[in-house]
Amino acid sequence: MRLIILFCTMALFQCGIYQSTVKKNAGSTLHYKILRIDSTENVYCIYAMRNDSVFKILEKKEARNNCHRIVVDKDYDLKISSIFLPEELHVKMRVAGIKFEGVMVNMEEEGVIRDLFTASNLIGTCYVFK
After folding, report:
1. N or C: at which end does the chain have fewer Cβ atoms within 10 angstroms?
2. Nearest C-alpha neighbor of 58 from the set 105, 121, 92
3. What is the rounded CA–CA span in Å between residue 42 and residue 52?
């Protein structure tokens, strides 16, 4: 019984640390290095690293002329936020993927934060200076 209580306490503590880290970074502008850009149907999956964490940023494909396209291995100040509400922590920890712009996006990837983000200063793969 003590083992179960200890396990539950540790699990809640870990969820609290994860949630506070995401809350602290949500909506803030921080420096990210673009690792790779994948493309599926009408969605870009942009993998960006800050410190030792990899974030998966989803953007709808949009045709743009005369824009500053993001480049792999370059750094950008991105303003990212989770597509999940803070009270949906239990949902994102249980689902394997979600539909974004009609495309199924996998959430389970090794080495990537188990969350999906959007960036308010990206339009597709175009960086918007704000």
Report:
1. N
2. 105
3. 29
The length of the chain is 130
Q: Distance (Å, rounded) from C-alpha 86 to C-alpha 83? A: 9
Q: For residue range 11-45, what is the model confidence (pLDDT) as tens digits?
A: 444 544 444 444 444 455 689 999 999 998 899 99
Residue type (1 letter), 95: V
Which residue segment(s) compose the domain that 32 sits in? Answer: 2-127
Q: How far is CA 90 from the centre of its chain?
A: 16
Number of domains forming the structure of the chain: 1
C-alpha distance across the termini of the chain, in Å: 54
What is 35-46 written as a DSSP string?
EEEEEETTEEEE
Backbone angles phi, psi at 109, to 5 degrees: -135, 135
